[in-house]
Design a protein that fits this description.
Helices cover 45% and strands 13% of the residues. By secondary structure, it is of the alpha/beta class.
Length: 246
């Protein structure tokens, strides 16, 4: 009965309010950034939108390790990718502004794509090597300018709840720019809204921020980058709930 009542609530109350909140947050972001307030409007409207969404979805959020967030220096933040709800955890509860490195296809989302572009997020295209290289250069320029970036190193959402092997891009960028990697473990989003489903479920959510992994002494060889990626994978996997472990 509780599941049926929640499904009715999602369709009649959550969904309409969520759509309205999304449009408002996107418009505020676009206008604020256009008027020169990118530092504020690229972060706070999205942060408020994400927190309100989790509250509206009746999904309690637990945060651990917030003391490991770096507020005064750029870093590359990476997390496992359990589902669409991951976005709300990172945006709403990480506690530091980050520039997202995201798939090119997301720019087509109504309002959201335009807001992300206005906020200065990086859209990654793999259609050509030149386009992919341009995305990396753009991400590195953000780090050089003092901004932190966020990347899902798996590249796409999990279909099983378990983690896939990390791609090297985020770690290559961190080594090249001599900035730390901040691993983040996300628990719960897979059960809240798994890939391919539109049936939101009430689910406790957890975000765990791990201590920084220093990259200053690492070289940019294939072996060094792969070792950093695998080390980060192990750190994130160590805090997964049992249901998400191999």
């Amino acid at each position: 009965m509780a599941r049926i009542l929640y499904a009715i609530y999602v369709r009649l109350i959550f969904a309409p309010i969520f759509i309205l909140l999304t449009v408002i947050a996107a418009l505020v972001t676009i206008v604020g950034c256009m008027l020169g307030g990118k530092r504020i409007f690229s972060y706070y409207p999205g942060m408020i939108w994400a927190r309100l969404t989790c509250g509206l979805a009746l999904c309690p959020v637990a945060i651990r390790g917030s003391e490991h967030v770096l507020h005064n220096q750029p870093a590359v933040y990476v997390a496992n990718h359990q589902g669409a709800v991951d976005i709300f955890l990172i945006f709403g509860f990480l506690g530091v502004p980050v520039k997202w490195v995201m798939k090119q296809g997301l720019v087509k989302l109504p309002f959201v794509g335009a807001a992300c572009r206005a906020a200065g997020f990086v859209f990654v295209s793999h259609k050509t090597l030149k386009a992919a290289a341009g995305s990396i250069i753009e991400a590195e320029r953000l780090l050089q300018a003092g901004c932190s970036i966020f990347i899902f190193p798996e590249g796409s959402r999990t279909t099983s709840g378990k983690m896939g092997r990390f791609k090297k891009g985020a770690f290559q960028i961190a080594i090249d720019q001599h900035v730390p990697i901040i691993p983040i473990t996300l628990n719960g989003p897979f059960h809240a809204l798994p890939i391919g489903s539109l049936n939101l479920r009430r689910q406790p959510l957890e975000i765990i921020v791990h201590p920084p992994i220093i990259t200053e002494d690492a070289d940019s060889s294939h072996e060094s980058v792969r070792r950093l990626a695998d080390e980060t994978f192990s750190v994130i996997a160590s805090a997964l709930w049992e249901a998400y472990r191999d």
